[in-house]
Automatic annotation (TrEMBL):
<feature type="transmembrane region" description="Helical">
    <location>
        <begin position="213"/>
        <end position="233"/>
    </location>
</feature>
<feature type="transmembrane region" description="Helical">
    <location>
        <begin position="56"/>
        <end position="76"/>
    </location>
</feature>
<dbReference type="InterPro" id="IPR010645">
    <property type="entry name" value="MFS_4"/>
</dbReference>
<feature type="transmembrane region" description="Helical">
    <location>
        <begin position="307"/>
        <end position="329"/>
    </location>
</feature>
<feature type="transmembrane region" description="Helical">
    <location>
        <begin position="83"/>
        <end position="101"/>
    </location>
</feature>
<dbReference type="InterPro" id="IPR036259">
    <property type="entry name" value="MFS_trans_sf"/>
</dbReference>
<feature type="transmembrane region" description="Helical">
    <location>
        <begin position="174"/>
        <end position="193"/>
    </location>
</feature>
<feature type="transmembrane region" description="Helical">
    <location>
        <begin position="284"/>
        <end position="301"/>
    </location>
</feature>
<feature type="transmembrane region" description="Helical">
    <location>
        <begin position="146"/>
        <end position="168"/>
    </location>
</feature>
<keyword id="KW-1133">Transmembrane helix</keyword>
<keyword id="KW-0472">Membrane</keyword>
<feature type="transmembrane region" description="Helical">
    <location>
        <begin position="113"/>
        <end position="134"/>
    </location>
</feature>
<feature type="transmembrane region" description="Helical">
    <location>
        <begin position="253"/>
        <end position="272"/>
    </location>
</feature>
<keyword id="KW-0812">Transmembrane</keyword>
<dbReference type="Pfam" id="PF06779">
    <property type="entry name" value="MFS_4"/>
</dbReference>
<dbReference type="InterPro" id="IPR005829">
    <property type="entry name" value="Sugar_transporter_CS"/>
</dbReference>
<feature type="transmembrane region" description="Helical">
    <location>
        <begin position="14"/>
        <end position="36"/>
    </location>
</feature>
Amino acid sequence: MSVSQPSCTTPRELFSVLAAGAVLLVVVHSLGRFIYTPLLPYLVADGQLDLQQGASIATWNYLGYLMGALLAIRWHRIDHIRLLLPLSLAVHVLTTLLQTRLDSEATIAASRWLNGVANGVVFVQAPALILEWLVRRNRASASGLVYLGVGLGLLLSSALVSLSADWLSGAARWWPAAILSIPLAWWGTARLLKLEVPSRPESSGHSADHGPLLDRASVPLFLSYAGAGLGYILPMTFLPLVAQRQLPPEHWLLDGSWLLVALATLPAAFLWNHLGSRLGDLPALRANYLIQLLGVLAAVLWPGPVGLVLCALLVGITFVGTVLLTQRIGRALHPHQGPRLSAALVALYGFTQMVGPWLTKQWLNLGGTLDTAFWIGVAALAWGLVFSALVPKPEAWHRHKAESV
């Protein structure tokens, strides 16, 4: 039985641990993955890539993310995390540095794939390690604040791309992200490796650790999360490119659409962490899906400034909430499978994110447009909303299982 230690955790210690997790998400998820979104229009304009190549490279990155999450399912114990976390951050730094020297589609895709593997491992393991540390101290409700790093990172990535746009070109546009990643990765990793979270040996007797992840409670949650991954990834990959095609040159939304996403994402972790604690994680998750659905729908119903602004704001304010609420619900349904369940959810999310750019590429090859490809996201989020309504409340599910024994 784990021992709760609420009196041993000072506000300063809690802040430093959450900050370290947030910083690592800035590094791998924003400076590694999402900076590609505002960079892509510049890389296309520089002649380094075309639109189809950009979508293909995004797919390779998401494939790496999926494989990283699958690695985290296999090596999910605390002692595994202490080994893989620093290794993955080193891979992120090295591949981002390498990105500044590459020009061919094949080598860029290979580098982005490997960077995605590192991203997938860290995105699973850093929050999972922090959540286990928080649970032992009765502070699990604060776990969602780790994802503040995604919002801060989006704002940072937007600023780095915009500020360096006029004096860098081609592969050199990756230099700001590469340079900044080094000190941030070093500090965040060093702080998390100091956490006192005991490794649970294989023979500890917790048979639930190796029980089935999929049951009547978790299957709807997994299906819902699949819709979330496919639904949000289209605007999060292609929104600036859509703005470039819909708006006149020099319009403020050409760079401003991504800035709006970043600004909307900033309060998202705090907002959905609070709403989940206040309303319950399941009702908050259903509201989250509905708002996100309306955001992607706005982009296809009102092409131009109105649709772009609504899409940026509504997707930005929600997608982090989908992640943190789903992770908490999953752990509540399977409390002894924290890191393993987290990895499985991220793997599924990664798979559907990989499918999004691939479907977009197929649609473009068939003569479709990037604007109409967003209907894929609308359908996916509608799917997610329907299945979220089928997820039982964790307390009711555990009561049902106890009564059926």
